Amino acid sequence: MSNTFQVDLRGIVDLLSHHLYASPRVYVRELLQNAVDAITATASEDGRVEITTGADALRVSDNGIGLTEAQVHELLATIGRSSKRDELGFARHEFLGQFGIGLLSCFLVADEIRVHTRRAGAPAVLWTGYSDGRYEVRPGEDREPGTTVTLLPRRGVETLLSGATVKELAELYGSLLPVTVEVDGVPVTSGELPWKTGREAYCQRVFGFTPFDVVEINVPEAGLTGAAFVLPTAVNPAARGGHRVYLKRMLLAENIEGLLPEWAFFARCVVDSTELRPTASREALYEDGLLDDVRDAIADQLRGWLVRLAATDPRRLARFLGVHHLGVKALALHDDEMLRLVEQWWPMETNMGRVTLAEFRERHGVIRYAATTDEFHQLSAVAAAQDIGLINGGYVYDADIIERLATVDRTVRVERLEPTDLTTRFSSLDAETELRLRPFLAVAQRRLDKLGCEVVIRAYDPATVPALYLVSRAAAFHDEFTTSRDKADDLWGGVLDALSQVAAPERPQLVLNHRNPLVRRVLGLADPELAGLAVESLYGQALMLGHHPIRPADAALLNTSFLGLLNRAVTAEEQK
Ligand SMILES: Nc1ncnc2c1ncn2[C@@H]1O[C@H](COP(=O)(O)OP(=O)(O)OP(=O)(O)O)[C@@H](O)[C@H]1O
Description:
This protein is an alpha+beta fold and 576 residues long. The chain folds into four domains: 179 residues, Histidine kinase-like ATPase, C-terminal domain (Heat Shock Protein 90), CATH 3.30.565; 112 residues, 2-Layer Sandwich (Ribosomal Protein S5, domain 2); 110 residues, Rossmann fold (3-Layer(aba) Sandwich); 113 residues, Four Helix Bundle (Hemerythrin (Met), subunit A) (Up-down Bundle), CATH 1.20.120.790. The protein has 18 helices and 21 strands. The strands form five sheets. An eight-stranded mixed β-sheet has the order 5-4-3-6-2-1-7-8, covered by helices on one side. A five-stranded mixed β-sheet has the order 9-10-13-11-12, with helices on both faces. A three-stranded parallel β-sheet has the order 17-16-18. Strand 9 and strand 10 form a beta hairpin. Helix 7 crosses helix 8. The longest helix is centred in the middle third of the chain and has 24 residues. It is elongated and about 120 Å long. It starts with 8 loop residues before the first helix and ends with a helix. Bound molecules: adenosine-5'-triphosphate.
């Protein structure tokens, strides 16, 4: 037995209003669109849509193609049926609509919809649809070819059909349409694409900012023109900005995502396309190959703008990078041109001031960097004193960018500097001095053993630095490891213990500087207790100099060594 599906119109309208459309305000867009499509079907040059508002009803009249009685039955009363698809079910290119559900959106604001329509050469028809699913068709009063849709407002939503709201919505969605649209006798269409003329003023009015620059966009295969406005201030790269998209000059939505690749978060676009397709809610673009191509083409045009800026106006480019460097750097991780741009123009922090990677290479040959800001702080002063240029690769993307540079250009030499690499550059002491200092070293080592630190004496510049605390990557890992072990419960602690046997730690080193005059005096102290206190306070000072974390054991040591030294100084003064 074959049956036909029944449709519960209330259920469908509920589905549309709660799950498809973002707001009932879209009903104006759907009505406008039907009117424009009906005019397109006549191929007339003189299309007009007249909207009149009033307390009793809203009327939308067009001089479009109109419908015969048979079409009224077929198209208006059949959900999902549309005259805008071809025999194979594909959307016909010239129309805005395609899904056959748009008219239903009127039930979001009205309980009764009347369509008074006439196709040239056929009698006029009046169709009345009710939100409970009934409809009636009867002969209509004679009229010019075209259609008038009348909505009788539902109680409670009258403001959505008020003159002011309808004018605002008609202007929002339809101001660029190629037909004349009037609301209560006042035209809302201007015809011109406003971003073609006063671009800055348009950006200010629509997006609320004065653009840093405007990039013209053209993607002929999608019949797309538009403008990308470069934001004058930094934005969170994770916050995806929306774009204003028109399809065949009808506003699709003001906040469309996914038109640009993620890295281009510094631009807001307005575009009009004849070929891109909407989703059924008409609030997003349909993801297809064409949208991919459009995204790539716009990305190319933005990239081209950046490269041109570098060539013609480097100061302006520097200003741009000052604001949007994060986005550009993110892009440099997979785009060679952007990588070159960062190399040439983005000044990085080094121990010799801010310089670009290109300048750094020219000066030092090798791009030497510390992978974290902590490592950089440990090393920068000492490296500078030895004329070793060092870049702080600790900022977001910087270390990765440096490494990538070496992979795309074989002539670039990159070296990651480890704290312990520096000790190998420090001079060892002569054998005789080493021998003489052994008893001191033994005292010092005993004092710092409990902190897991090894004491060594070397001679290095700058002589003003008395001691350095150097942590190798392996030792830093081990430190974190033991801290977690101390905090972990038994079960997890057991797991960590097992792992710790695999990680052979290199101990952190306190490297006393034999060139420092105060250190030399400390090394000559006869009193082992005073020597111990001095080593402990040098340890504390070196920790702070290198921005190392101060653990509770370190804080306790700092405290006792400071008080011990103070006690000594006061006692000495009292005994004078
Ligand atoms: N003003 C009008 N003049 C002539 N025909 C109309 C008019 N409004 C609606 N129609 C007819 O009714 C059909 C259904 O309209 P509806 O708005 O529900 O869907 P659609 O415009 O085809 O597609 P979409 O759901 O994408 O808007 C249309 O395909 C069209 O044939």
